[in-house]
Amino acid sequence: MRIVSTLLLIFFTFIVFYAAAGLPDVGDPNSAPSTHVSPRYIEKAYEEIHSPNVVTAVLADYRGYDTLGETTVIFTAGIATVLILRAGHKKSDQGGKRE
Amino acid sequence: MNKPFGSIVLDISFRYLVPFILMYGIYVLIHGEYSPGGGFQAGALLAIGIILARLIQGEESSFNISGDTAVILAGLGTLIFAGVGVISLIWSGNVLEYGVFPLNVHKESELHPLGILGIEIGVTICVAAVIIAIYDALTRRDDAI
Fold this sequence. Notes:
The complex is a heterodimer.
Chain A (H helix, E strand, L loop, with lengths): L1 H20 L10 H5 L1 H12 L4 H9 L1 H35 L1
Chain B lengths: L7 H23 L8 H19 L9 H24 L21 H33 L1
Helix pairs in contact in B: 1-2, 2-4, 3-4
């Protein structure tokens, strides 16, 4: 079983590195994202959103639905953390009071 | 005042630090469309201000937010965000399409900063309340033992 998982790990690592070699370079002006949506956002952001901050325009307006998901993720993670942290405390507290 | 700990140095530095941190947090929130920043950063700053107050003055700090209130506030922040989306649905637009708000402006695009401010207030409340709730849960454990 160990050998199988090691082989699988090596296989997937090879796939990741092989696929990463095909990605466009960071900041390449001819890559697909730089020629498709980025110029559209940069040219039209002030006209359409009336905000000089393009990052906020993309984050909160063009991709507002995405940010809604991010906020929900933070909320869910916070609730889960609070529940886990309080769970142990409550048990020991009750046990101490009863005895 | 009977304080668990704290000295004159902590009290004086607290008085000078916390108002500026809170004011900077609100500035980052309101100025989010024009400068770097936004809801997430403003939420972290506001939470740091409140946690600092609580670290120095303890539970009876003048602007303390308890853990239960913080959890409610976190849900409220998410609800504000979703509510802005629903408002634009009511005025027959898409979700989070700010251009359909029924206000008198010269151009439709001038409504977008309003919508962005609305959702960023929600994000700020959610992030700040989550940080405070986690801090509260962490410190509460020490009290029990």
